[in-house]
Design a protein that fits this description.
This protein has four helices and seven strands. It is α+β, with helices and mostly antiparallel strands.
């Protein structure tokens, strides 16, 4: 089993219900156990400001799935809950966003998948729930999430 961290976000429809349902769908997947879910927090949109506020959080998953297979499952859950990728502006409104932030201590760089998430250090809305789930969490390169969060708050 590998501990993976997934960022959760939504800013359309019943955001909280959608995020809770996404967690239920992940928990019902063979090879995935939901170990913990952070609190959910209201956040301002990043990159495309003319849209509703987001509800964000993160989940710690213990998984037997390889990184690519886990990403595939995340994308299926997004589609099941109304996400249509490629429609609308980049970083625009969405029913659901599931981002694979970390996968154990692995570094993955392949077409369609980069782990750790390439913009993690810039995203307070992802760092805060990660820190909540594991205050001692470090990236594969040794950077501490708490230090990244402190930098993001300045």
């Amino acid at each position: 089993m590998t501990r993976a961290y997934v960022g959760l976000g939504a800013n359309l429809g019943d955001r909280e219900a959608t995020l809770r349902r996404a967690i239920e769908l992940l928990a019902s997947t063979q090879g995935i156990e939901v170990a913990a879910v952070s609190s959910l927090r209201e956040t301002d949109p990043v990159g495309y400001a003319d849209q509703p506020r987001f509800l964000n959080g993160a989940a710690a998953l213990d998984t037997e799935l390889a990184p690519g297979a886990l990403l595939d499952r995340l994308l299926v859950v997004e589609r099941e809950l109304g996400r249509v990728r490629g429609r609308g502006p980049r970083y625009g409104p969405r029913a659901l966003d599931l981002d694979l932030l970390l996968y154990g201590d692995e570094v993955v760089d392949e077409p369609g998948l980069t782990v750790p998430h390439p913009r993690l250090a810039e995203r307070r809305f992802a760092l805060e729930p990660l820190h909540e789930l594991d205050p001692g969490l470090r990236l594969p390169d040794g950077r501490a999430v708490r230090e990244m969060l402190a930098s993001a708050l300045q």
